[in-house]
């Protein structure tokens, strides 16, 4: 083999190695580009998921804030409605209380009422001796009907007439001097107690109004505010 043949073989080997190198380089380039595209796609998808998750989180926060705001406004509206209803009920209570102040304006009917309240209190206490408290302005009227009330009680309870002592040291609060008066006042009626003070029967007009109002409050609310 001469030098020319050796040179040709060398040239062929060089071309073969170069071709393989180029093919290998192309494979590496294609593989690298594919890996790059895959990684890029993964990164894009990851960012998309992150954006979607962030959007969903913010959307949930907005919904929660809306629900909280709605609940707050709803509660505030309910409180306003309840307050308005209470104002109406309280105005009725005040109107009824003002009407009670007129009961004592008619001495004849008020005397009959006082007698009935005393008899009722005696029947509840069923004590042989009691202490009676009334308004100072009612003292004479109470004295005028007391004996009759004691007899009526004795007949109903089938007992002897009890001893009823009018408390002349402590009186019930007086009627208000005007309709807007503040402080304690009493529209009328009596309070009876056992001698030891352990049993008390409060039978004032105001106390009876309170009892009736509490008992009838559900019915009043139903009549006024039922849908």
From TrEMBL:
Coiled coil region boundaries: none
Keyword Ion transport: yes
UniProt keywords, alphabetically: Ion transport, Transport
Pfam families from the UniProt entry: vATP-synt_E (PF01991)
GO CC annotation, single: proton-transporting two-sector ATPase complex, catalytic domain
Superkingdom assignment: Eukaryota
Listed GO MF terms: proton-transporting ATPase activity, rotational mechanism
UniProt-recorded name of the protein: V-type proton ATPase subunit E
Species of the source: Ananas comosus var. bracteatus (red pineapple)
Lineage: Eukaryota, Viridiplantae, Streptophyta, Embryophyta, Tracheophyta
């Amino acid at each position: 083999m001469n030098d020319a043949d050796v040179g040709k073989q060398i040239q062929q080997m060089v071309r073969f190695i170069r071709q393989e190198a180029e093919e290998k380089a192309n494979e590496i380039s294609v593989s690298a580009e594919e890996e790059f595209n895959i990684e890029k796609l993964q990164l894009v998808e990851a960012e998309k998921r992150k954006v979607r998750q962030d959007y969903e989180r913010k959307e949930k926060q907005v919904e929660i804030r809306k629900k909280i705001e709605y609940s707050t406004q709803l509660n505030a509206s309910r409180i306003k409605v309840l307050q308005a209803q209470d104002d109406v009920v309280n105005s009725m209570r005040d109107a009824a209380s003002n009407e009670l102040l007129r009961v004592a304006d008619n001495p004849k009917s008020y005397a009959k009422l006082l007698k009935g309240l005393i008899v009722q209190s005696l029947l509840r206490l069923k004590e042989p001796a009691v202490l009676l408290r009334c308004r100072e302005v009612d003292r004479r009227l109470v004295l005028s009907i007391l004996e009759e009330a004691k007899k009526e009680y004795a007949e109903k309870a089938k007992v002897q007439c009890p001893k009823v002592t009018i408390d002349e040291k402590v009186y019930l609060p007086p009627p208000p001097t005007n309709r807007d008066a503040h402080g304690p006042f009493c529209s009328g009626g009596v309070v009876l107690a056992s001698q030891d003070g352990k049993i008390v029967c409060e039978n004032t007009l105001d106390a009876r109004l309170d009892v009736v109002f509490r008992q009838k409050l559900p019915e009043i609310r139903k009549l006024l505010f039922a849908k």
